[in-house]
Amino acid sequence: MTELAPYAVSEHNSHGRAVHEDAPFGRSEFQRDRDRIIHSTAFRRLEYKTQVFVNHEGDLFRTRLTHSMEVAQIARSIARYLKLNEDLVEAISLAHDLGHTPFGHAGQDALNSCMKDYGGFEHNLQSLRVVDRLEDHYAAFDGLNLSFETREGILKHCSPDNAAKLGRVGERFLTQQRPSLEAQVANLADEIAYNNHDVDDGLRSGLITLDQLASVRLFSGHLDAVRTLYPGLTDRRLIHETIRRMINTLVTDLLHTTEQNILTHVVRDIAEVRAAPPLVTFSAEIHEQNRELKTFLRTHLYRHYRVLRMSAKARRIIDDLFKAFMQDRRLLPPQFMLQAEHDHARAVSDYIAGMTDRYAIREHRRLFAVEES
Ligand code: MG
């Protein structure tokens, strides 16, 4: 790894792990975090979980696994340029969606409303719960025993009530401090990744069109440039070439703006990063254009009637599963039955949140279709 900037997270300024372990041989603590995440069960499930499209709709749409890899790629490029801890941004990026329910945002909203009398459901908090408690691979501890800074990066948002129960990792939500620059990078890399791949998947599915995107400056500026430079390009190449230029514009702008922010706020170490305002940002102009793109996607893709139909179906499946398991906990698999004896609703929520799209569909069929068992 290249030399780290003084404001980067390093093994020397890290708050370490909850359970003490000897330093790893031949790799850094944050490499070890990343390796544990990749070997986790929750990570493998990302392959069959989706954000916008349900998993069986097409083989070319993003899943949460490929999304997480794209986030890691973007975040690592940014981190390397800024001399931040690349292993840490990679670990955060690969873990950031581990707590997501099946069926994307619709699934998360459904589970949250099922859980409203039992403490609610937040996917960020669930990602932390997965790495802190639910993974059961290690003899000496529950979860993955990750470094503080990886856990901090995973917990992107948190309500004050929940933050108060989390100890050190929740403190910043109560004291209004910022997380490390590495966490800030992973967060914006996530946004860059999903906005751009949702345009790609949206076009591929036919739910949005190139003509509609003409109103989005970030897209249309590059589209016009590519059309002028390469007349007669097929649509697939035209779209891909435009999107790669969009990602490049966002990343380049973020690098320049962040470098400038670091200079302006004179941060010299990680403590100063935590006390400063958010430093990993877009410029005002690109921020505005990115907002325009997000608004477009919300209106034309996420609220498209075909997406809403899938969401309605997803909500019904989650509702049904939740009710069935709450009515009779004996229907739960053995490992959740035990937990359900003292914490029934949370056990059901953990079980459902861990399901992949297709597993949830199958489980629903097993419970409700008379001809299945
Ligand atoms: Mg994400």
Shape: globular
CATH architecture of the largest domain: Orthogonal Bundle
CATH topology type of the largest domain: Hypothetical protein af1432
Give the radius of gyration.
21 Å
SSE ordering: HHHHHHHHHHHHHHHHHH
- The structural class is mainly alpha
Structure description:
Helix content is 62%, strand content 0%. It folds into two domains: 29-307, Hypothetical protein af1432, CATH 1.10.3210.10; 308-368, no CATH class. The chain has helices spanning 29-38, 41-45, 64-81, 86-95, 104-114, 123-134, 148-154, 160-164, 171-175, 181-205, 217-229, 235-264, 270-275, 284-302, 305-327, 334-342, 344-354, 357-368. The chain is built from 18 helices and no strands. It is globular and about 60 Å long. It has 373 residues and is mainly alpha-helical. Magnesium ion (MG) binds next to helix 10.
Brief digest:
The chain has 373 residues and is mostly helical. Helices cover 62% and strands 0% of the residues.
List keywords for this structure.
single chain; binds magnesium ion; Hypothetical protein af1432; about 375 residues; 18 helices; globular
Secondary-structure topology with pairs:
Layout (H helix, E strand, L loop, with lengths): L28 H10 L2 H5 L18 H18 L4 H10 L8 H11 L8 H12 L13 H7 L5 H5 L6 H5 L5 H25 L11 H13 L5 H30 L5 H6 L8 H19 L2 H23 L6 H9 L1 H11 L2 H12 L5
Helix pairs in contact: 1-4, 3-4, 3-10, 4-7, 4-10, 5-15, 7-10, 10-12, 10-14, 11-12, 15-17, 15-18, 16-17
The structure holds magnesium ion.
Magnesium ion binds next to α10.
